[in-house]
Amino acid sequence: MNKKNPWTWVPSLYFAEGIPYVTVMTISLIMYKRMGMSNTDITLYTSWLYLPWVIKPFWSPFVDIVKSKRWWIISMQLLIGAALGGVAFTIPTAFWLQGTLCFFWLMAFSSATHDIAADGFYMLGLNHHQQAWFVGIRSTFYRIATIFGQGMLVALAGNMAVLTRNVRYSWSLMFYFAAGLFIALWLYHSWVLPKPHEDDNHEKTGAKEMIRELGTTIRTFFDKQQVVVGICFMLFYRMPEGLLAKVSALFLVDARHNGGLGLSDSEYGLAQGTVGIIGLTLGGILGGIAASRHGLKHWLWPMVLAITLPDIVYVYLSYAMPSNLFCVSSCIFIEQFGYGFGFTAYMLYLIYYSQGKHKTSHYAICTAFMALSMMLPGLVAGALQEAVGYRMFFIIVIAACSMTFIVTSLLKIDPGFGKKMTE
Q1: What angle do CA 43, 44, 45 make, to 5 degrees?
Q2: Best label site of 103, 224, 349, 365, fewest CB within 10 Å?
Q3: Coil, strand or helix: which one is 91?
Q4: Lowest pLDDT segment from 81-85, 121-125, 233-237, 287-291
Q5: If 0-12 CB within 10 Å is exposed, 13-18 middle and 19+ buried, where does residue 229 land?
Q6: Within 10 A of 7 (CB to CB), how many other CB atoms are there?
Q7: C-alpha atoms less than 13 angstroms from C-alpha of 156 in its C-beta half-sphere
Q8: Taking 50 as the threshold, does the pLDDT of residue 261 lie above it?
Q9: How far apart, in whole angstroms, are the C-alpha atoms of residue 367 and residue 347?
Q10: pLDDT in tens, 306-361
Q11: What are phi and psi of 52, to 5 degrees?
């Protein structure tokens, strides 16, 4: 292995992992809204983009069979850069919807594949001590990528729209900038990523054996105790967030005469893309610290309250319609902080459910249900909002919190789980 200082590639690798995800899941929402699409169409089309992450566990063995993980990382970064350029190219055209969706799909599949390869490469490129040391660093730079995407890139598009007086042209320029940035990351990683001996020379498993192993993994996953309760928890714990996630962003930027707050792209970038992400990150850190001290079972219900009750800030915003950006940002911070704290219970339960033989593969299947839990509510969220309006929609979100309470009440968790694990 040609040894490289992990600081030269771990932060940039996880920054590169975060950019396409936030682009597909969040930036696309704001772009389509600015281009005049209805909330129904926006949430329907963009929710389908979760699919690559839903089925990711079923093609991850292919990444291990064909080529090295370094090759996959480099190749996917080039494809993501090309997809960003493709979005930029098609925005000003007459076929902008079909074209941008096509390239967003390419970006989504490339990003999901990049996730598989990057996480595997992380374990091959670092020893155990380094893996533990850099786990916080990689998460931090993933969050920085989220702030950069939702905050700076959205604000950049908005500022250029003011200068050019042309919405499509401004978004096209922003995506060209993002494509250039990603091509630069591709070139940098082509040079800086180490070449672990295990990555090139590990014994490859045959395709038939891999398929047989995948079948065994799926069967043992569904043979677990409390499988029905576990899957229901994975699907419904975040139902309120699944409804809220996409519509809340559209509510923030929608015109006031439509019931939205009418934030500019720069204001959205600050409120949701910066203040909100900081709240989400702090909530997640505090949740991890809390769970490590007393375990998941002790903190389960406080985390349920944290992930549900703060959703009421959107009921307040939809009725009060404040124009003060500090007030709006504070509400977003509260909701995102609560979500970050409450989401800790969800992630810890995925680990808890995955314990035993095949735990890595079982965890991957759990993450598929995690993506599905956001995809399914998102498909109907926009249509529901347009049918009842923003105010009633947010009240429905609060009512949906009952599902979180119901599925949580059915869980049986070892009181000691969480303490030793995080230690």
Answers
A1: 95
A2: 224
A3: coil
A4: 121-125
A5: middle
A6: 10
A7: 16
A8: yes
A9: 9
A10: 999 999 999 999 999 999 999 999 999 999 999 999 998 998 898 888 877 777 77
A11: -55, -35
User: In angstroms, rounded to a whole number, what is the distance separating the alpha carbons of residues 100 and 108?
Assistant: 12
b/e code 184-215 from CB counts within 10 Å (16+ = b): ebbebbeeebbebeebeeeeeeeeeeeeeebe
Report residue 294 as tokens.
């007393």
Q: Which residue has the tokens 């949906």?
A: 400
Selection from 287, 262, 416 nearest residue 344 by Cα: 287
Token pair 């070892």: residue:
414
Structure tokens at 290: 């809390």
Distance CA 38, CA 246 (A): 13
Cβ-Cβ contacts under 8 Å for 237 (sequence gap 6 or more): 307, 345, 346, 349, 373, 404, 407, 408
Tell me the two tokens of residue 99: 């074209």
Let me know: does 404 contact 307? Beta carbons within 8 Å: yes
Asked if 65 and 205 touch (Cβ cutoff 8 Å), the reply is yes
Report the pLDDT value the prediction gives residue 418, as an integer from 0 to 100: 65
DSSP codes of every residue in 315-327: HHHHHH----HHH
Nearest-angstrom CA–CA distance, 68 and 105: 24
Tokens standing for 117? 């390869």
Look at residue 331 in the predicted model and tell me its pLDDT. Answer: 96
- What is the Cα gyration radius of the chain? 21
Q: What single letter denotes the amino acid at residue 193?
A: L
Encoded amino acid at 233, one letter: F
Strands (E), 13-165: none
**Which amino acid, 178?**
A
- Identify the pLDDT of residue 129: 67
Q: Can you list the alpha helix ranges (DSSP code H) found in 165-258?
A: 167-192, 197-201, 207-222, 227-236, 239-253
Give SS3 for 261.
coil
